[in-house]
Amino acid sequence: MKKRPIEAIKNPDKIQNYWLKEKKTVMLLTIFGILYNVGMVARPIYQGKLIDALITRVSFVNLIKLALTFVFVIFMVQFFRYIKRYYVRQFANRTTATMRFMLYNNLLHKKEKELNDKNMGSLMTKTISDVDVCVEGMRKSTTEVFDTGVLFITYLITLLKYDVRITLYACIFIPVAIFIAEKLKKLIFKFTKAYRSQISNISDITYDAIDNAILYRLYGREADNKVIYDKELEDFEKKAIRANVWENAMQPIYNVIAMGGIIFVIIMLGEKVYEGDFTVGEFSAYISIFAIMAVKASRIARLFNTIQKSSVSWNRIKPYLKEYSQIDTYLGKINKKTRVEAKNLYFKYKSEYIIKNLNFVAEENHIIGITGPIGCGKSTLGRIFLGEHDYEGSLLIDNKELRDYSEYERSKIISYLGHNPHLISDTIYNNITLGDDGDITHVLNMVCFDEDLKFMENGIDTLVGNGGVRLSGGQQARIALARTLYHKNKILILDDPFSAVDMNTEKIIIDNLRKYYKDSLILLISHRLSIFKYLTQIILINEDKTLEYGSHYELLTNSKLYNQLYSLQQRKEGDEDE
């Protein structure tokens, strides 16, 4: 499973650093951008020469040579354009990947309480949308630097060489168009901000309606919610129209204003043609160059609008652009062979002990089951490994105390899957990779999801919906498990991963873990004991917080509680089979 690492970026909350990160790509697009836009001036010039050649009736051979030169120039200019557009798109794609990776990584390293306190699916949907808008603005502004800035300067210099006085008169209206656009940018920013904010409101209301549809129906709130939704939707439509009108309807006006100088060109240059100072071909070339330059100059105004629109999205996503690996990047020496040892381990909430005097040793290629009655502290034991809770006694990982590992080091050693799948509103692929770039076929097969994909038209690009609402409970659980396995570390902690999975699938997944994850130590927290006979050792937490430790068959023989729990479950499974 090969993954393409995404390089860290320093100060990701400063937008200029994204261009600096892709400096090689930016350098190449700069070279080809200049070649393309400087070459663009050759087209109207050679077009004018062809017109003059036809008027003066040059020889057929010279006409063919001139025509072939014209065609070659056009071909080279378009070739430079293709290369420039390729590198601009490459810059945009890599920047999108970088931003998305940091958003996913930010989610990945949030505390479970933070995830539960927020509608993360809705939040991630909005921020990913903002990433797309922001990067599109960066792409357009990068493109316009050349297609407007460089081209405008090249065309202006060319026109000045033809005639300085006429060019100065002709360009008098261009600054007016730019000035108007610059003054309107605050107004456009205001309308765009209101529009983007209303998108968030509509998203929140929609997700809330889906997540709580049954509850609202039971209490007769559907009609009231529909009234609220219709009102918000009407407000959204008004703000969308207002924002789009101000952003797009002004462009033709800017064009007309910038082209105002064409009157001076026609009158003054026409006089020079009449007097014989200019040829018809030069007149045609000048008119073409000026028209293109004026339209391009008016796009400077449009660029202001695009930047304002993008800045709204940038301000919204900036707080979430945090490169996690920059925090505490030192990773101490860790043994290749995984070993965990608990010595006289205690843990308590306030004054009540949840775990008492736990002692065990586990190594890689072991699957350790953790079970016990509901509320006995099974999940608490798993979360201790995340560093969320302090403990008494000793918990060694590779002969180093757990509390002595930094947060970053723990994230590189331990993978954790809790009760909640925490799926984001994105594709199956992105839910598993969380911004990485790699093949997920292996982990999908591991969790028996390959059969499910056969019934999904878009395969791994299927959208799961907010919180995985478009998937069944079992599918959500297996996607979350696949994500954990894809990002696997030396220690895997799986807290009740099979609660929504049938027993046959559970058995297959366990067999896969035993076969393909021999280089990891797996702690499996579960109340379902049917697969525990395949595990290495089992930790049983009793209701009085005392602990028992042994194999499945040892506990069946020596533990009254374990024997009782296992027998009850076997009897229930037998009844269900009948």
Tell me about this structure:
With 578 residues, this protein is of the alpha/beta class. The chain has helices spanning 16-21, 23-39, 42-55, 60-108, 112-117, 120-162, 164-170, 174-211, 213-218, 222-248, 250-258, 262-275, 280-317, 378-384, 407-413, 428-433, 441-446, 450-453, 473-486, 503-516, 552-558, 560-577; strands spanning 339-349, 352-363, 367-371, 392-397, 400-401, 414-417, 491-495, 521-525, 537-541, 547-550. The protein has a 6-stranded mixed β-sheet with strand order 6-7-8-3-9-10, sandwiched between helices. A 4-stranded antiparallel β-sheet has the order 2-1-4-5, with no helix packed on it. Strand 1 and strand 2 form a beta hairpin. The protein starts with 15 loop residues before the first helix and ends with a helix. The relative contact order is 0.10.
Q: Strands, helices and their partners?
A:
Blueprint: H1 16-21, H2 23-39, H3 42-55, H4 60-108, H5 112-117, H6 120-162, H7 164-170, H8 174-211, H9 213-218, H10 222-248, H11 250-258, H12 262-275, H13 280-317, E1 339-349, E2 352-363, E3 367-371, H14 378-384, E4 392-397, E5 400-401, H15 407-413, E6 414-417, H16 428-433, H17 441-446, H18 450-453, H19 473-486, E7 491-495, H20 503-516, E8 521-525, E9 537-541, E10 547-550, H21 552-558, H22 560-577
List keywords for this structure.
elongated, disordered N terminus, four-stranded antiparallel β-sheet, six-stranded mixed β-sheet, 10% strand, 578 residues, alpha/beta
* Global morphology: elongated
SS field, number of helical segments: 22
Task: Kindly report the average pLDDT value.
Answer: 80
Low-confidence stretches: 1-5, 325-334
Helix-strand category: alpha/beta
Strand content range: 5-15%
Q: What is the first-to-last residue Cα distance?
A: 43 Å
Count of beta strands: 10
The oligomeric state of the chains shown is single chain
Strand order of the largest sheet: 6-7-8-3-9-10
Sheet with most strands: 6 strands, mixed
Gyration radius, to the nearest Å?
33 Å
Q: Percent helix among the residues? A: 55-70%
